[in-house]
Amino acid sequence: MWRETGRWLYDKNAKIKGLRANVKRCSPKSACLPDPDFKTVLSEAYTMNSPEGNISATLIPGSSLSWSVSFNGIPVIEPSALGIVTGGMKLSEDAVLAPPRSEEYHGTFPERDKKSEASDIHRKFIFPVKHIPTGLKYTLEFRIWNDGVGFRFVFSDDTKMLVDSEATTFRVNRDSVCIYQPDAKKLQGKSLKTRTPDIPDGTLMAFMTAFILPDNAGYCLLTESNLNNYPGAALRYKPDGEFSIDFWDSGKFFAKGCKSPWRLVILSPTLNGFVNSDVVKCSADPPDEKLFADTSWIRPGKAVWSYFIDREASIDYNTEISFNAYAQRLGFPYSVVDHGWRRWAKTEPGAFKRLRGVVEDAEKHGIGVWAWKASTMGPLWPRYRRWFLDKCVECGVKGVKMDLIESETQVAINFYRGFLEEAAKRHIMVIYHNPNKPTGLSRTYPNLLTREAIRGIQSNCDPDDNVLLPFTRFSAGGADYTPYCFSVEKRNGGATLAHKLANTVVYNSALLTISEHPENIVGHISESFIRALPSVWDETLVLEPSEIGRLAVFARRTGEAWFAAGQQGSGEGENIPLSLGFLNRHTCYSCELFTDVPGNPECMNREELEVSYETVLNIKTCSGGGFAMRLVPKGQLDNNSMEVKI
Asked: What is the CATH number of domain 14-282?
């Protein structure tokens, strides 16, 4: 009910603000006046190339502006419309283009999801545009990386518009195979894979849609980045093969001094390049240097979590106290206290006093506490938001798990940023649950460690979905899948125990929340692996046996230690020839290897091996199976004696 009421108020507010719009049709006489800024105009298509020349984007003038993209000479985006619609007018129709100014950029910035450092090398082209019917001037900015293309619309600070919609479309090569997420709200539907022409007409999908290009040409992802005071979009599939921008969660909205989000096309000839693309974060705003001058308080790590195993028990105060000791025993730095803590007292200040008791106990164990909060219970209002975060600081909470956002309206997009900014001022880390897709926000606000926006283990450990997600959802950033639970049978989904362990490596999250009860991990066959598992990585590789929808095989490195894992869908078992050629050729390694037990999906084998970069392992997996391994320089493998339970 509150959402419907909020939407009604939002629409009313937008229309009232829209009365201030200054983008209006001008008189025919003034429209014909000469403009010194547009003495020279482009009358023919203008082609822009990536630094290495493998990607070409073309801006096409005419009665309506359009664009296209080719990759290694193959058309990927055929001529498609672009533009913003305001007052019933498409600002890319009856418009003139001046020649662009261009520049090349080379830079790097810290990363943690897939690697320690991201690279940003692109060419930028800024086209002055004038919309003749209104006289409005704006710029159309393109950036071309070696693995992607992006464009956005930039308006002057005094431009005021009531935006009706966006006319941007993507005509993707119709011989491609499409992998899409049908849940635009939370990305929690089962991913679907089909030939592009076979997508049902009118299908709405999350604006994070991947394609396998024809003739082994590579892979493509359509998405957006750097949302700010502008609603998030979905894609709508049209009968003629177009994917159009659809503000699924928003009506008309008012924008002053608007910069639209980046419309991105990510491209790579290999899955390794596809997954390692930095384009989403490269096109996001860098962090505020003053706000994040000191980032020592931002500490990724693993967390225990009582909620998934037994929701009712997790509400109990003593349960959360016991999980502090479990976290210390496993070497985890955090415990996530979920929604039940608010019930510990009649008032919220009283509940905070009780929460302080959990925090004080956690401090004795050397761990930090994250506290759950619903966006619907106050934080959408700035005054309450500040009060809540001040109470978190007073209480000693290290991070907030903000839940139940479920929106991409202009108001919600501003909330994502506003909450992170207020949290950063107080040195509070954040994770978002039931949010929109990742759009590079964790670069702008490094205190955002992760977000859900995924069909995680709370839905099911679905092997067929799990071999799609690493190449779709995770291409844009880490996700809180809350992996590795083997004691809740109804969530097993046909996945073997080794498959579930592989999730902890194939899927990445800077706050890695292990959903199994800690008492089931202590003494378990996988304890040494889980103890040693990092939550951030220096390097990520997608290994050659990988194939979207069949097999995901990843290797990740932190320092000198490598973790490798693979998982397959529900088809017949695989024989996977795994080359360890990614290892340092001058080092011998000790390997801890976990594999499927044929006929017993609830068990797995563990063995220790000595390997090198020349080693090729033949690993056998079962239906819904997988494997996981830890590789460290010889002699560094922990061999703690423990009671092994399977």
From this structure: 2.70.98.10
